[in-house]
């Protein structure tokens, strides 16, 4: 049985680094999902992992000339049902273009219709975040100052468009249930303890109210929100984290924030959880 899980998000949203960390998690077999067979080609994820092991996040792949999709056969338990998961390497700029202009290639549309699940990424404090304070007055002010430059589609509008795109293109799961989308808030390790306790859903409500409203109104897909830290810290500014990764590697680092039955948010070391939920495991 083959299911395509699509990683969706704008530039600098955390997709590439997640792929580089989820493969070792699948290979270790200690999480909800494990790799049932070795993939044919893992150069893409190994390249990303090499950057992380060196104490650096992988560079953005927005301008890469060649797509490097990642395909792996996974199972939830030894000897259990196997699922082939295909994670297309589709750049954030391509997703941004699709949201801004509503134009997608035939190949991308085929990828979407073959998928029954997706991970939609949004990153805390992304350098690519676009959020004008006031669309009308700020534009008028900049025009009067002679320094008006179109910053492009606001990030939360782009995310709403991508969510709509997923709703109309994703296929039902093999059991006939709705397609599933994991909303992944990456770089969740940089928020303070108070924001962590309120959870990534509350963070979305505060930072992207338009997206939060859309999440509460959607009917065609099932949604779940996760927080994500790929290495347990910010390699760009946290020297202790960077030194520890360089010296001791990535074992035991990284986690997913999940909500328990009592509404409390907890760190879970299983980096496969957003994918496992999206495939219905």
CATH superfamily: P-loop containing nucleotide triphosphate hydrolases
| Strand line-up of the largest beta sheet | 2-3-4-1-5-6-7-8-9
What structural class do you assign from the helix and strand content?
Answer: alpha/beta
The number of helical runs is 11
Whole-number tally of structural domains: 1
Quickly name the level 1 CATH class: Alpha Beta
Q: Find the count of extended strands (DSSP E, 2+ residues).
A: 9
End-to-end distance, in Å? 14 Å
Low-confidence stretches: none
What is the arithmetic mean of pLDDT? 82
Q: What is the global morphology?
A: globular
Tell me the fraction of residues in β-strands, as a range.
15-25%
Q: Could you say what the CATH topology is called? A: Rossmann fold
Spell out the helices and strands N to C.
EHEHEEHHEHHEHHHEHEEH
User: What is the CATH architecture descriptor?
Assistant: 3-Layer(aba) Sandwich
Q: What radius of gyration results from the CA coordinates?
A: 19 Å
Main sheet record? 9 strands, mixed
